[in-house]
Input
Amino acid sequence: MNRQPSNIAASIHRRLLNANRTLKENFNYVLSRYAIERLLYRLAKSGQSNNFVLKGATLFLVWTGRTYRPTKDLDLLGYGEISNEQIAVQFQQICLAEVEPDGLIFDPRSISVSDIREDQEYQGKRIDLSAKFGKARINLQIDIGFGDSVTPDAQEITYPTLIDLPAPQIRAYPRETVIAEKLQAMVALGIINSRMKDFADIYVLSRQFNFDGVVLTKAINATFVRRKTAIPNEMPFALTDEFATTPDKITHWNGFLQRSRSPEVPTNFLNVVHNIRAFLMPPLLAIAAQDTFTKQWSYENQWR
Output
């Protein structure tokens, strides 16, 4: 285990407290975010970086400099052998990577690996591990998916740091693939969908970034093909007014808003669905009709 003097942890702790005067987040979340950041740095330095691609809510830190829905978990796409034993070995190497002192000691003995998403065509693993930070222990959960299509290719990114420490240089999902996977889940789940974070994520992305229609349709098509989901030739139920006004969906949405405390998304779920519909139905219908979709999305002017 990579041992570090306890006074380094105390110094880092003070610096994180100072940083949080600006962030104004729950400090337990700040500690989790810091642990994720330094785990990603170890990933970049471990020789395992080609085996994993960053995905999930932490990408909003990369794209916007902030996260509108704080998360204590880490999501990755994995490549190569997917046995529990091999994943455990990979993360042991990540935990033991030689890095500059940052106050954290990741314990390779704490690693446990379990299967997730057993009912789907694509497999996944869940990793639980812990890190010592002074006298505190920080528990992390990492979900790793396998077999998904990344279109366009994964991008080299610099992950933002909380304090002045070397930043992780890793590969990450493009925004188009994030949208494609969330849209596929909406189509596949239909009425049983309770993944309100997917609606919020697509809404935020469509309101803050521009998109090329050709690139977005390629990403959507690749994801649907890989996940063996038919492209709908009519509006998916998850984008209908009926879905958006169903009482239990409104309850789910209100619960999500309470947990995320996000000012970036409207309180009215129907408004969110209408915005997503305007964003995704034109490219989706173009794919269904086998047409080339060449329009450009502007977050200010929509498709042009």
User: Anything to note?
Assistant: The mean pLDDT is 94. The longest strand covers residues 136-146.
